[in-house]
Amino acid sequence: MKVADNIFLVGSGDAGLSISDSSDCSVYLIDDGNSCCLIDAGSGVNPDLIIRNIENDGIDPSRVNRIFLTHGHGDHAGGAAYLSSKLNADVYGAAETACFVSSGDQKALDVECAIEAGLYPEGYSVKAVRVHELKDGESIKLGDDMLHVIYSPGHSAGHCCYLYKNNLFSGDVLSADGKIALQAIWDCDLQSYIKTILKLQKLRIEGFYPGHGAFSVARGYRHFDAAAERIKRLWLPKNSIGE
């Protein structure tokens, strides 16, 4: 599903448009004219649905040569091993994501507690796959443009966002209407979260492409403004978890 110039939505679970497995995050594809990359990889449950969506958009899946993870939680990184192998694509992520996903550390990736909470079935795991480490502030060439890496801790350790031509792929930092995703897990940190929100607000982005739910092709900054306004009042931003 084409959502903007060069940008396609190729995966989305039941917290979004339900075009792939119900447990998937939103998976985006950027076509730079030469090759393609994915932002996140879904849960790994029925990953061929993502490949089917790529084909349905008229894109040869063999053109996908890179997968950029926003973080290591199962709904975002669980499909990385399969898609990397199937598409012959390299996988990238922030330091902690690279460490935890490369080693398949289910505890560090919060998979064990997510299974206990009923978010994933027994036996679910994030399969280990080599993840190349990205540095904060690093820029990767995509055709004639650049993909900028922005470390954005708070929701999880090793979370990063990606900025492409004033379009922000925000992972689970923020969803529509300024909602954060604050969870009772070891690596979710409120103070880091607040700093991340205020940092990203300054970007004044247009395209806003979160890991779940509605996206915006213009005026994406308003979602960060909504969260920042509550922070200014010493309130917490609204939380999408537990709704």
UniProtKB/TrEMBL annotation:
InterPro entries: Metallo-B-lactamas (IPR001279), NDM-1-like (IPR050855), RibonucZ/Hydroxyglut_hydro (IPR036866). Residues 24-212 form the Metallo-beta-lactamase domain. One of its GO terms (biological process) is antibiotic catabolic process. Coiled coil: none annotated. It holds the Pfam family Lactamase_B. Signal peptide: none annotated. Belongs to the metallo-beta-lactamase superfamily. Class-B beta-lactamase family. This is MBL fold metallo-hydrolase. It comes from Candidatus Ornithospirochaeta stercoripullorum.
